[in-house]
Write a structure and sequence with these properties.
- With 151 residues, the protein is an all-alpha fold.
- The chain folds into three domains: 3-33, no CATH class; 46-87, no CATH class; 96-146, no CATH class.
- It has helices at 12-18, 23-33, 46-52, 61-68, 72-81, 107-114, 118-128, 139-148; strands spanning 90-91, 96-97.
- A two-stranded antiparallel ribbon has the order 1-2.
- Strand 1 and strand 2 (96-97) form a beta hairpin.
Length: 151
């Protein structure tokens, strides 16, 4: 069971996902065959870290890891080592940058715009501490009322 020659060329987890088995099974097979584990590339140097230093704590660790070609945990470990807090704005589940959301809209309008469910929008509204806009006070409704001369 060489699993299509992928062992050692992909992470054990990725091989396991492609072949519907556990990563533990793949790692056992890989070790029995004497194949070294897959490594994404060389560890980042100080110069590499310097290029992304300004983004640590601003962007998600996974985004920085993609740029450097390393695992997310490598970036997280480095960020924690230099005492930089994690990114609080990008939701890892939905990949929405909540800083760019127009909080003047209602939760329903934001949910439709971002593709997130209303519960998630309410949760982030509470985190960002933005005020809830009632459906009567939305910018669209205000424009319509002004156009009709009712406001």
């Amino acid at each position: 069971m060489l699993v299509g020659g992928r062992i050692g060329k992909m992470s054990d987890r990725e091989v396991a996902e492609k072949h519907c088995c556990t990563s533990r099974l793949i790692s056992v097979v890989r070790r029995r065959l004497g194949i070294q584990p897959f490594h994404r590339g060389p560890k980042p140097t100080e110069k590499d870290w310097a290029t992304v230093e300004k983004d640590l704590g601003v962007l998600a660790d996974s985004e920085i890891a993609k740029r450097l070609g390393v695992l997310r945990s490598t970036v997280t470990t480095h960020r924690n080592k230099i005492c930089v807090g994690g990114c609080k704005v990008v939701d890892r589940r939905t990949r929405i940058n909540w800083n760019k959301v127009n909080w003047k809209l209602t939760d329903k309008a934001i949910a439709i715009e971002t593709g997130a469910n209303m519960w998630r929008v309410k949760q982030w509204r509470d985190r960002v501490a933005a005020t809830q806009v009632t459906p009567q006070n939305t910018p669209e409704r205000s424009r319509k009322l002004r156009a009709r001369g009712q406001r």
